[in-house]
Write a structure and sequence with these properties.
Length: 575
């Protein structure tokens, strides 16, 4: 075991001094029964836990923390667990995205303010991964991520169900396929039947794959189901490894390079990952100091073949992905597209970590020679309707709608949509384009996952399964459809989306990366002059701070006051 250079440990500034403050810092912690050598010779490892009973996907992480502690102790470290704001995607109102930046602030300041030499991030549900990583980036200590893992496949009447993906089909199932209330209840009970996060390639699974592709987890961590014993082994080994990372001074900035970030963009395209990946990676890059633009996701990722056959872009689920070989197989397949010398947390390169994985099911993980789809990454659109950009996920869209002109059917708010979408007198048909305003970062506030709104009942009954939908909001990674998202600038700050009227013709051409509102420049100027900004949704607290400082989607929707980092040093003591 490598010797610890104790004089370089950050925690020594708290625990190694033989003065009044050293006495204060040590004596109170001794009430938990720690022996003297814990304070003198061991690196302090903070275990950042996003466990909460209000976050179902992270409900098992309290147990995982104990496993990580075991590994830290074995390696000669001093583990100290701390909680941070947990973000439950399925529970929080108005949207957990509103609080991503708050959780990142919680993580950053807790790490900085305490005697921590290295950090283990215990993550799971969608926003818990990017928020904690954003906060850790702003401090830049040695950091390793332990993803909580997906649930086992959902089951319903002998078939597999994807948690999340089935949600978006409930209306259609009841209206068109005659599902009874009993059927829906049975599906509800069986769709989320074990600990873990959504087992589709939704945002939680995408984030787990993202951190593995970035080199921030041990190899193979992303796809192991939460209840598989191998997940606990991975957690224990991660506890051991973080101690070694502290000894090697392997900070986040040594791993989160431009090359690592480009690798994650490539991998996300190949797995058919969530569009939410874009907004989170932009924010992470902004914190660690890597210059990343929205257009990079198209330039780097749009020509990458789709290799992973998972819902919502395919038919399988994360449990099947793990059994087929998981992300290491994908990374090995992508060698010619990757920066293979990118460093990872175990001290090896991404290529060295992924030389020998074997694929056990080519129906789940395809080869680059015979992919499921060519050019399957994210497309970044530009045009007068989205001057700073918008995004669409072609692998989840209907091919016949990727080039389309149609009249807008406009909903000013999500409440307006709910009130009118199923009105039998609504002038809407399959060629119409649904436009949803005021669901962006400022407008909602928080940019919720409402972009993939349900189709009107009268069209569902006719067998129509997809329409173009455009908004300044986001979409669940578990959902599919021809959905244009992240329109920037958003409607609430005067973007052109705010000026769209019923009947306006909109042109979408994904091949040409074009999203255009077909009105004259004179008419557009006239509407801009007449536009009145909506009143702020709140006058106090964090939400007011968020509205005043949140950046637009093309910048990652981080707060402008959080760009970059504060570093690890805190010079003033508490007495």
């Amino acid at each position: 075991m490598k010797q610890i250079t104790t004089d370089k440990l950050r925690s020594r500034d708290w625990f190694a001094k033989d003065d009044k403050m050293g006495f204060v810092h040590r004596s109170w912690l001794r009430n938990q029964g720690y022996p003297d050598d814990y304070f003198r010779n061991k690196p302090v490892i903070g275990i950042c836990n996003t466990w909460s009973e209000l976050t179902p996907c992270n409900g098992h992480l309290r147990d995982f923390a104990e496993v990580v502690k075991r590994g830290v102790t074995e390696a000669g470290g001093f583990p100290l667990e701390f909680p941070v704001t947990s973000l439950g995607e399925t529970i929080m109102r108005p949207t957990s995205m509103l609080f991503r930046n708050l959780a990142s602030m919680d993580t950053e300041e807790t790490i900085r303010a305490n005697p921590i030499d290295g950090v283990v991030l215990l993550t799971g549900c969608d926003k818990t991964t990017p928020s904690t990583l954003m906060g850790a980036c702003s401090v830049d200590l040695p950091t390793i991520v332990v993803p909580g893992g997906p649930m086992l496949n959902g089951r319903f009447k002998g078939e597999c169900l994807g948690s999340g993906s089935f949600n978006w089909m409930v209306k259609e199932k009841m209206l068109v396929e005659n599902y009874t209330a009993e059927d829906i209840l049975e599906a509800e009970i069986g769709v989320a039947r074990s600990a873990g996060h959504c087992m589709t390639m939704g945002t939680a699974s995408t984030m787990a794959c993202m951190v593995e592709a970035l080199g921030l987890t041990l190899p193979g961590a992303a796809a192991i189901p939460a209840v598989d014993a191998r997940k606990k082994v991975m957690a224990q080994l991660s506890g051991r490894r973080i101690v070694e990372m502290v000894k090697d001074d392997m900070k986040l900035s040594k791993i989160l390079t431009r090359e690592a970030i480009e690798n994650s963009i490539v991998v996300n395209a190949a797995i058919g990952g969530s569009t939410n990946f874009i907004i989170h990676l932009l924010a992470i890059a902004g914190r660690i100091g890597v210059d990343l633009k929205l257009e990079d996701f198209d330039t780097i990722g749009s020509k990458i073949p789709l290799l992973v056959n998972l819902k919502p872009s395919g038919k399988y689920l994360m449990e099947d992905f793990f059994y087929a070989g998981g992300l290491p197989v994908v990374i090995k397949e992508l060698r010619k597209y990757l920066h293979n010398d990118a460093l990872t947390v175990n001290g090896k390169t991404i290529e060295e970590n992924n030389t020998s994985p074997v694929c056990y099911n080519r129906d789940v993980i395809a080869t680059t020679d015979k992919p499921l789809q060519q050019n399957a990454g994210i497309a970044v659109l530009k045009g007068n309707l989205c001057e700073q950009g918008a995004v669409i996920k072609p692998s989840a869209a209907s091919k016949n709608l990727l080039k389309h002109r149609g009249p807008a059917v406009v909903f000013e708010t999500i409440e307006d949509y709910h009130a009118r979408i199923d009105d039998c007198n609504l002038d809407i048909h399959e060629n119409s384009i649904i436009v949803l305003k005021n669901v962006g970062p400022v407008g909602y506030p928080g940019m919720p996952e409402v972009g993939n709104v349900d189709l009107p009942e009268k069209l569902l009954r006719r067998g129509i399964k997809d329409m173009i939908r455009i908004s300044d909001g986001r979409m669940s990674g578990t959902a599919g459809g021809t959905v244009v998202l992240h329109v920037s600038p958003e409607s609430a700050v005067g973007g052109v989306l705010a000026l769209v009227n019923d009947g306006d013709i909109i042109e979408l051409d994904v091949d040409k990366r074009r999203l255009h509102l077909d009105i004259s420049d004179e008419e557009l100027k006239k509407r801009k002059a007449e536009w009145i900004a909506p009143r702020p949704t709140t006058k106090r607290g964090y939400v007011k701070l968020y509205i005043n400082h949140v950046q637009q989607a093309h910048l990652g929707a981080d707060l402008d006051i959080l760009n970059g980092g504060s570093g690890e040093e805190v010079t003033r003591d508490l007495h």
